[in-house]
Amino acid sequence: MKILALDIGDVWIGTAISDPLGILARPYKTIKSNVFNEAFGEVVLIEHIQTVVVGYPKTMHGTESEQTKKTKLFIEQLKEAFPLINFVLWDERLSSKRADSLKRGNLDRSEKQASHSRAAAFILSSYLEYQQIHADIK
Asked: Is residue 77 helix, strand or coil?
């Protein structure tokens, strides 16, 4: 089963998707937050998504920020709208910086939008790696 990841921002939400074996992650789409629920529902149906990994924006000290609170509220709303989906919060510290570092120089608008999906791919890659390591231990 494919897994979807989200990098939630105030204006844009980046998504990334795994391959069916759950080994590789790739950027998928960047979606405007005000139309996200409809687009998310379509992605879930088309890609047969059952698990969604959500970037959890803690501060570098491991505490909650305003963005952390916004993310929690957004996820609670998604859980109500999509009760059959398993949502997993995953530490996203530095994923946006890693995504931005792939592009040198000033980012134009389309690059800034795409960086959200790249950040989601970093989040998903980290989650998939963790899952593979722990599956090997069992």
From this structure: helix
CATH number at residue 1: 3.30.420.140
Mean pLDDT over residues 59-73, rounded?
83
For 73-138, where are the E strands, in sequence order?
Answer: 86-91
- Number of domains the chain contains: 1
Residue 129 lies in a domain: no
DSSP readout, 12-67? EEEEEEE-TTS--EEEEEEEEGGGHHHHHHHHHHHHT--EEEEEE-B-TTS-B-HH
21-49: per-residue pLDDT in tens? 999 999 999 999 999 999 999 999 999 99
